[in-house]
Description:
The chain is an alpha/beta fold and 205 residues long. It has helices spanning 19-30, 49-55, 74-86, 105-108, 124-133, 150-158, 163-171, 177-185, 190-204; strands at residues 8-12, 33-38, 62-67, 91-97, 112-115.
Amino acid sequence: MQQTRGKSYLIVGPPGCGKSRWIRQAAAAAGHTLFRWNCRDDRALRQGRELLHGVVRTREPTWVWLEGADDITLDAQAFLRRILETASVQVTCVLEVRRLECMAEPIQSRCILKRLTNSLNMTWRQKNIHAKWAQPDDYIVPKMQTPTNLNELRTARLSGADPYTIMSQIAKGHHLERDALKRSTMGMSPWILSAWMLSQNTNIN
């Protein structure tokens, strides 16, 4: 039976396990163009929707890398499912995720699953090899204390902290927690929501 659409992969693993490196190396080994879209900066896929629609229909051998696909909204996941269904046979879609449980079942069923493990689970010999040959993309998100003001929030952002972890820390027990989480599911930036909650604390005080 002739293949009518390209392959799709779900690359799952914690920060720092080498997901980015695997994708880059696989695309390079295939000799294909690599197109990358950061879903964490566009959770509703409003900015990238038209562009992605065009890229997945290209006749040029291309890997379409969707970084942080587990952070997109439910509406965006429905669009993503259509992308996977209509992708050209020349296109390989790669969804990079940390939490598989956040992906809808119809998306999971259309993808080849590949799990990558954290270096914490490596043997002593594997850790030595990883330390010697690790790539710059094997980035480990720093752990941060909960910011209590806008200056500390800015420091957390510049340090590369995970925006959703920071937002969850600030929201915990906050009187705007429910509203902030609701807005987050609609695609609003976690940094903006974090700043909003901290500014409300200042106004109350």
